[in-house]
Specification:
Blueprint lengths: L4 E4 L1 H10 L6 H14 L3 E6 H9 L5 H11 L5 E5 L12 H14 L3 E4 L6 H13 L4 E7 L8 H12 L6 E5 L7 H15 L4 E4 L7 H7 L7 E4 L13 H10 L8 H18 L13 H4 L3 H13 L6 H14 L9 H14 L9 H7 L12 H8 L2 H8 L6 H8 L5 H9 L2 H10 L11 H11 L6 E6 L2 E6 L5 E2 L1
Parallel strand pairs: 1-2, 1-8, 2-3, 3-4, 4-5, 5-6, 6-7, 7-8
Antiparallel strand pairs: 9-10, 10-11
Helix pairs in contact: 1-13, 2-4, 2-11, 6-7, 7-8, 14-15
Length: 493
């Protein structure tokens, strides 16, 4: 039977799916790093430019420093960066020279493996990015075939793109990226062998989700058809709308006769850590999902579901989730069947929310949808519905955006933002509001250690020290004791 490797996804995809990309910070990352390095993962799915933006905006932490420290902490295991086309942090399409600088800086900080998932399945774009990465010293490039269900995404669609990727000497492997958890064993039975026949000896990996209970079943059959690695999360960061759970996948693959060469004790410790972390921080744990046929209509990926729910809650319209999801399916068809992934997933959700909450559909159309219609994110797979395109063309904003210049040359952008800045700070300031970068820098270095068992105690301490009506407090937990007197700093007994 087959030898199967694992790619660990808890820090990136699990965190995004179940915890809206907010559950992990630098300390939580570095604490588990040495154990992850012992497991024997083929790679660790570590970050994206979106997660780097989250580190700055919500955690006030330097994402470049997090990458550097993590790369030092896991010398044996390659860290993966997921790139979704010619974009970095911002939704705006970046210039090739800007992306080349971003890739070079990521590599200099210690990232070794790059996954390229163009949201249009534009294989030529992926090949161009792969060329940049290898020129900058990147070790391993894996090109994605982003899976979706639509009238135009058949096996021939994927085989044609697989062949283009495999012909590039800069692409080391391919993977089927099923971020919606839509790939059934029946469909995989034709798709995977067809892709393998097109790519020859280049390795093929599989990335799926448990959103409607299909992904893990497909993992069990995939090695027989040529898949050599599967992507899994651990503990509470797995299952649900996240990736299949690593320990269960390993156990089942072995029971079916396959060989998975990993350190089982270390793998179990990684799982326990993410479960303890979720319990300590009050984060939801993934759990097995029932099959839901309505999901085949909207296909919202796991990470985007978490983000959507957070945004609906923030705007106090959580009760409209069902209507928004139903509308999303209609919007997708009208816009030419874009694949429901970043940045299109966010764009589709935004338009769906506006259509549901507005007086009429497409009464308001955000700039990102207009830019999509103008081809700024690539050419739609099929023409946009005429009535929707007519509405877009009638907007004054469309005329403004059509005349708007793209990203200026890199040299000009540096002069505008600050020629004295490091590459790291320049890339952040070129793609994020200055105030958010300033706040990150003012916050100072991030914490580097985390103890999930002590997290509830420290949260209680922070709450109590903020009160003015307490003059003395004593906290004991196991062998730990903490005394607080007045407004003085805590003194350990």
């Amino acid at each position: 039977m087959a030898n199967v490797q694992l790619i660990e996804t808890s820090l990136r995809d699990g965190n995004q799916c179940l915890w809206s990309a907010l559950g992990i910070d630098t300390a939580k990352t570095l604490t588990i790093a040495p154990v992850m390095d012992r497991v024997g993962f083929k790679a660790i799915d570590f970050t994206t430019s979106t997660h780097m933006g989250v580190a700055v905006r919500y955690k006030k932490e330097d994402p470049w420093e997090r990458i550097r420290l993590m790369a030092k902490a896991v010398p044996k295991t390659p860290l993966q960066f997921l790139s979704t086309g010619f974009r970095f942090i911002s939704w705006e399409t970046a210039s090739p020279e800007f992306m080349a600088l971003a890739f070079k800086t990521l590599i200099n900080k210690g990232l070794r493996r790059f996954a390229l998932a163009d949201p249009m399945n534009d294989a030529d774009s992926n090949v161009a990015c792969a060329r940049m990465i290898k020129a900058a010293g990147g070790e391993y490039v894996i090109g994605a075939l982003v899976f979706t269900l639509s009238p135009i995404h058949d096996d021939a669609h994927y085989v044609a793109r697989a062949r283009t990727l495999a012909e590039s000497p800069d692409v080391d492997a391919l993977y089927i990226k099923d971020m919606g958890g839509l790939l059934t064993p029946l469909r995989a039975r034709t798709l995977i062998p067809a892709v393998k026949a097109a790519i020859g000896d280049k390795p093929l990996e599989l990335h799926s989700h448990c959103t409607i209970g299909i992904g893990e079943l497909t993992y069990m059959d995939a090695p027989e058809w040529g898949v050599s690695a599967v992507q899994c999360a651990s503990g509470a960061a797995a299952d649900g709308i996240s990736n299949p759970p690593s320990e269960r996948v390993v156990s089942n693959l072995r029971a079916l006769g396959h060989h998975v060469d990993i350190d089982d004790q270390a793998l179990a410790e990684v799982g326990r850590y993410f479960t303890r972390l979720a319990e300590a921080e009050g984060l939801p744990a993934g759990c097995p999902q029932a099959f839901d046929a309505s999901y085949l209509h909207h296909q919202l990926p796991g990470g985007t579901i978490g983000t959507m729910r957070r945004h609906l809650a923030e705007t106090r319209v959580s009760h409209l989730e069902g209507a928004v999801i139903e509308e999303l399916g209609r919007v997708r068809q009208e816009l030419g069947w874009p694949i429901v992934m970043t940045p299109f997933a966010q764009m589709l959700i935004t338009q769906a929310v506006l259509n549901v909450t507005g007086k009429q559909r497409y009464a308001t159309i955000p700039d990102e949808i207009i830019r999509y219609a103008l081809g700024r994110f690539g050419r739609p797979n099929i023409p946009i519905a005429p009535e929707v395109m007519d509405r877009i063309e009638s907007l004054p904003r469309t005329r403004e955006l059509r005349q708007q210049p793209g990203m200026p040359p890199l040299r000009e952008l540096r002069q505008r933002i600050g020629p004295e800045l490091s590459d790291e700070e320049f890339l952040l300031r070129a793609t994020m509001p200055a105030g958010q970068v300033d706040a990150m820098k003012a916050a100072g270095p991030a914490q580097q250690t985390y103890d999930p068992d002590m997290a509830p105690v420290m949260s209680l301490v922070r709450q109590l020290t903020a009160r003015r009506d307490i003059t003395y407090l004593s906290i004991e937990k196991g062998g730990f004791k903490l005394e607080l007197r007045g407004q003085a700093a805590p003194v350990e007994a």
